[in-house]
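Changelog entry: the Alkaline phosphatase record was regenerated in this release. Current contents:
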Amino acid sequence: MSDFIIGFITDWGYLGIFLLMVAENIFPPIPSELIMPFAGYVAANGDLSIFGVLVAGTLGSVIGTTAWYGVARLMGIERFTWLCNKFGRFATLSEDDIDKAHHWFEKHGPLAVFAGRLIPAIRTLISVPAGLAKMPFGRFLLISALGSLLWTGILTVAGLLLHEGYHAVEAWVDPVSTGVVILAVVIYIWRFVTWKPIKDIG
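Regenerated structure tokens:
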């Protein structure tokens, strides 16, 4: 994965950064923790500008996360609830869970979206409740852009400052990302095993 990302950015420059960050937000296993620090390293060498790297990374991140927002918004809370009821055990969600999450997000939505853009493995998922809650698109876009800019900026500057030691960023952030994913899997398994339907559905 590392060699592919490095080669892709080397060959495609800003467009490569943009495409990788779009993909990272649609397919979370692609790590921004390697994409942006290497982009910062390339900028430190003078092959790319730091401004261009930040624009490409942030724009790709926002477009990628907006795709999930759009899908969730088109689906709507009613259809999403129906699917979770229909495939309840696999979704590990009940209608009551969805109602509680929906009300919580309506109250704390902007902060949740901004903070979610900074948390590994959550950056993509936070777009779904935003879409289901029908957060105004302009607000979602602005908050996502600010959170994405901060996240890509931190990783880019880290790669810029560390220069050839940019892999140190991945070495530090990657275990955190892995830990979050493992925790999510453990919670999913526990909820799958203990899930009970609230009511029968047709």
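The chain has one domain: 2-194.
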